[in-house]
Structure formats: structure tokens, C-alpha cells
Design a protein that fits this description.
The structure is a single chain. This protein is α+β, with helices and mostly antiparallel strands and about 475 residues long. About 35% of the residues lie in helices and about 25% in strands. It has an 8-stranded mixed β-sheet with strand order 1-2-3-4-5-6-14-13, sandwiched between helices. Strands 8, 9, 10, 12, 16, 17, 19 and 20 form an 8-stranded mixed β-sheet that branches. Strands 7-11 form a two-stranded antiparallel ribbon. One of its GO terms (biological process) is tRNA splicing, via endonucleolytic cleavage and ligation. InterPro entries: RtcB, RtcB-like_sf.
């Protein structure tokens, strides 16, 4: 089929897995969706098509607005959205980054095998849950003062190293080495800092999790070896972001931009797309505040890593170093960064907005950590707590197809409200334990229902599209063993 009509939109098939909504009306560029026909049907079930079409109206957007194969409705800008905007003549949009700035994923290796863990799942999940702050407003690993929060905002993982929560090796295996060079805490409000001071090292709620996994399949032996992965290995995945601090930063700047640049935003179709003109005072302030919130999120995930290492030490009676609990990689999927990409045959500096989308740079890019530059950047795609997740590596086609981006996970197909009507928490928990030996523990049973495996797209389908378009290539698949949530 070469043309599809969904929700009043005519989508034209450019080639396999690439669909385009042509530019018309107020659109500055076309909109593109990277999806199979089955995924396209799911993406069309909510307002994603409206939102990705609205995103094409952002001033300075280049080539096309993109929706990744896991895309679904968000606030203003769709989750799974990518927008590359001219860094000189365009704009910077907090809504196209999202409220949870630097929500992201990290993966920690171990030298344990599944046999080392088998029979101790319940002990481990209970210990992790007891020692990991979860839920809304339940504190963090560190509960501190404004002065310390300010240092975290400015220094990122440098602060964590000095305080004994991280190693230099952790920094070398984190995007941007865990410290944004543009971060400036002066542009973060007192309200945001106050929200963050008691949340450093906390999961929060919703779809955030800490999950012990085992490597179930290796697809590329050479790359897996470079990443330190092998079959049956135990690994730990952590998914969370900048908590209330990042939410407040986004809220502050959406409001400020809407007030200070009302005329600039007058023609945008959604309030949450509010954008600051590139080079303006408020754009520079937001970029500094966003960088600071990014640092906060990296420290947040690092303190959860520190706590996880300590739990494993107590449960297994060995030091975390002896168990090889090293960071494989940490990457953001709610972020805007200045990057240089080729547009119409010429290199151009762009604000690449990724909201629920993961950077997927191939070999050679200087942004990829030295350890992985010859094999490509690790890409971490979490699935659901009942299916599995993927480790991929940045593909050669990502730069030309998607500004070096791919999906960030499975992507929802069901609202939280609908999920709680369809699923019972105890049923989900019991079924996963009895039939798949997956142990789940959460602060609130409703969260388990909201995050039931059936509310997500098929992660295998999402990865297949990414592989077929050469956005990212599968390296390994992991399956859950223990999962804790807020």
C-alpha cells in the first residue's frame, strides 16, 4: 500500500517503514513517521498525528519533523518525536524536550550469571525495594540543601565522584561524560531547586523502574564483546529522570517564553510548543537551565547505581568491584542539544530536540565515548516489565534518516486510566511471578496495573523497524528477573 488515510491525514509511503504527511497549510516542512503498517495503526489511535504535524510549524525546523516507531501522544510534542531546528535562525522549545528533562536509561554490567541469582529473586527484589526511594515525594538517597543541589546542577557526575558515589570510569561511560558544559544553575529557579533537594537518588513513579535482567540472546558477538555482554549474564537497567526539579524547569520556561515572546508564538497551534527565538536571552537561559537539569538526572541515576551496588554487596556477600558492576552506558531520551548535521548537502548547527527518542550515533562521531567509537554508540531500549529490552548500537543510516536518532522503548498503546480498568495489579504480579519467574514490587499497586505488559507496543516490532532503516542494530536482548517501581 502506497497511501494510508488515518484520522483525516493522507500518509504517503516514501519507502518501506517511512511514511510522510506532505507539507501544506501552516506546515513549514513535511512530517515523517518511521513505522511498520501495524505500528502506524497503533500510532494513529491517539493524537500523535496531530502533534507531529503541529511540530512542523516550529520556526526554523529543517527537513521534516519525525516520529519514531514507538511514538504516542504527549504534551504538545509527541513522545517519540524528533525535531532538528536551525540553531541560529530557529528556536528552542522546552515542550519539545518534555517535562522530565533527561529522562533516560543506564545499563550496569555484572559478571554474575542467571544461575548465581536463581532462587534469590525474592530476596533481591525486596532488598532493592527497601533501599531504593520510590514513589512521589518519598525522599532520595541524598536529602540535602540548596547549596548542594546547586553544585549537582553545575557539576553533574564530577560532584558524584568527589562525594564517593561514582568513579571516573562511570563518567567515561556516560553521555557527555555526565556533565553538560553549558549547565548553569543560575537559570534554575528557587522553586525547582527546592523540589530537587530531597529527590537526589530516587526513581519517582509511573514508567520509571530499576530492573535486574539477564541477557537472553546475543545478535552481534563482536559488538557484544566490546560492550562487555554475554549470554546469561545478569545486568541492571535503570530508567528515570530529573524528577520534580526538571518538571519545574520546563514549567517555568514554558510560562516565561509564552509571556516574553507571545508574538513569536502566536501562530503555534499548541501552548506546550512554546518556543524561544534562537539567540534570545530566554533561549540561552533555558539552555543553561536544561543543561543543569540534565546534570541532576545523571547524578540521580548514579546515586541509584551506588545504592544498587551496595544492595548487591549485601545480598551476594562480595564487593561490587568483584562482581564487575560497571556502567555500560547512560543515555538521555528527553533532551535538546546543539549538534552538527548535514542538511541539503551542507553542515549546519542544529538544536536537535529528542522527546522520547534516543540518540543513535554510528562509529566515528566524536560524541561517542572513546571506548565505543570504533563499534558505535550503545542504544538502550527498555520494553515492558513482562517482555524484554534491547541493547543496540548506532546505525550508519541514522544520520541521514533521523538526525542520529531512534526509538526510546516500546511506547504506550493504552492510557493509564484504561490500563487500570483492564488489569488488576495482583493478577499482573502473580502472573509474571508464576509463569515467567519475574518478581515485581511497587510502591503503589495501581502502578503495576498501569505498567502491565499489555499496555505497550511490541518491542520486537519497534526494534525491527529501527534495524531495517539502519537507525540502530541489535546487539543483545535482555529479559526481566526483578523489577521495582514507584
Amino acid at each position: 500500500m502506497t497511501t494510508r488515510e488515518i484520522n483525516g491525514y493522507q500518509l504517503h509511503r516514501v519507502r518501506e517503514h517511512v511514511w510522510e504527511i506532505p507539507q501544506e497549510g501552516e506546515m513549514r516542512v513535511p512530517a515523517r513517521l518511521l513505522a511498520s503498517e501495524a505500528l502506524l495503526d497503533q500510532i494513529g489511535d491517539d493524537n500523535t498525528l496531530d502533534q507531529i504535524t503541529n511540530a512542523t510549524q516550529l520556526p526554523g525546523i529543517t527537513t521534516h519533523a519525525l516520529c519514531m516507531p514507538d511514538g504516542h501522544q504527549g504534551y504538545g510534542f509527541p513522545v517519540g518525536g524528533v525535531g532538528a531546528i536551525d540553531a541560529e535562525e530557529g528556536c528552542l522549545s522546552p515542550g519539545a524536550v518534555g517535562f522530565d528533562i533527561n529522562c533516560g536509561v543506564r545499563l550496569i554490567r555484572t559478571n554474575l550469571t542467571y544461575d548465581d541469582l536463581r532462587g534469590r529473586e525474592e530476596e533481591l527484589v525486596n532488598a532493592l525495594f527497601a533501599n531504593t526511594p520510590t514513589g512521589i515525594g518519598h525522599g532520595g538517597v541524598v536529602e540535602t540543601d540548596i547549596e548542594t543541589v546547586t553544585e549537582v546542577l553545575d557539576r553533574g557526575l564530577d560532584w558524584a565522584v568527589d562525594e564517593g558515589y561514582a568513579t571516573r570510569d562511570d563518567m567515561r561511560h556516560c553521555e557527555d561524560a555526565g556533565r553538560r558544559p553549558n549547565a548553569d544553575s543560575d537559570f534554575v529557579s528557587a522553586d525547582a531547586k527546592n523540589r530537587g533537594k530531597n529527590q537526589i537518588g530516587s526513581l519517582g513513579s509511573g514508567n520509571h523502574f530499576l530492573e535486574v535482567q539477564r541477557v537472553s540472546e546475543i545478535f552481534d558477538d563482536d559488538v557484544a564483546d566490546a560492550y562487555g555482554l554475554q549470554a546469561d549474564q545478569v545486568v541492571i537497567m535503570i530508567h528515570c529522570g530529573s524528577r520534580g526539579l526538571g518538571h519545574q524547569v520546563c514549567k517555568d520556561y514554558v510560562n516565561r517564553i509564552s509571556e516574553e515572546h507571545a508574538e513569536f508564538n502566536a501562530d503555534l497551534p499548541a501552548d506546550n510548543l512554546a518556543a524561544a527565538p534562537a539567540g534570545s536571552q530566554v533561549a540561552e537561559a533555558y539552555y543553561g537551565a536544561m543543561g543543569a537539569a540534565i546534570n541532576f538526572a545523571w547524578v540521580n541515576r548514579q546515586l541509584l547505581t551506588h545504592q544498587t551496588r551496595q544492595v548487591f554487596e549485601r545480598v551476594f556477600g562480595r564487593s561490587w568491584e568483584d562482581m564487575g558492576m560497571e556502567l555500560l552506558y547512560d543515555i538521555a531520551h528527553n533532551i535538546a542539544k546543539k549538534e552538527v548535521h548535514e542538511v541539503d548537502g551542507e553542515e549546519q548547527e542544529l538544536y536537535v530536540h529528542r522527546k522520547g527518542a534516543t540518540r543513535a550515533f554510528p562509529t566515528g562521531r566524536e560524541e561517542v565515548p572513546q571506548a565505543y567509537r570504533d563499534v558505535g554508540q550503545p542504544v538502550l531500549l527498555p520494553g515492558s516489565m513482562g517482555t524484554g529490552s534491547y541493547v543496540l548500537r548506532g546505525g550508519d543510516g541514522s544520520l541521514s534518516e533521523s538526525f542520529g536518532s531512534t526509538a526510546h522503548g516500546a511506547g504506550r498503546i493504552m492510557s493509564r486510566t484504561q490500563a487500570t480498568r483492564e488489569y488488576g495489579a495482583s493478577d499482573v504480579q502473580t502472573d509474571l511471578r508464576d509463569h515467567q519467574q519475574i518478581y515485581i514490587k511497587a510502591e503503589d499497586g495501581e502502578t503495576i496495573a498501569e505498567e502491565a505488559p499489555g499496555v505497550y507496543k511490541d518491542i520486537d516490532d519497534v526494534v525491527a523497524v529501527s534495524e531495517d532503516l539502519d537507525l540502530a542494530d541489535p546487539v543483545a536482548r535482555t529479559v526481566p528477573v526483578c523489577n521495582i517501581k514507584g
